[in-house]
Known about the structure:
It contains nine helices and no strands. It is 63% helix and 0% strand.
Amino acid sequence: LAEFVLAIPQWRVNRVSEPKRLAREALRGVMPEEVRRRTGKTVPASLFDRGFKDRAIPAIQDLVREPVSEQMGLLDGGALRREYDAFLAGKSPKHDFWWPLSAEFWLRAHFD
């Protein structure tokens, strides 16, 4: 796919008036037309919150307990734990948890 996108003229991939043109055309007839043509971003914040505060608490607590990323010097595990605990207590997070948790999950899969 990357080779294809790099090989064709850029105006076939995107146009100022049609963001993600090629991807949208590829999904014609597959996705509902209203969804396929939507230009706004979908932010699944409520789904993240439900996972972070309910369904995934044990998994997240395991990820932040002794992060491999902390052992590698990539983040402050204590700060991540404090932020997550404050989030569970109802405070708005200062930072997005998704990125450090995703990185931790990936690091454990490949380096732990």
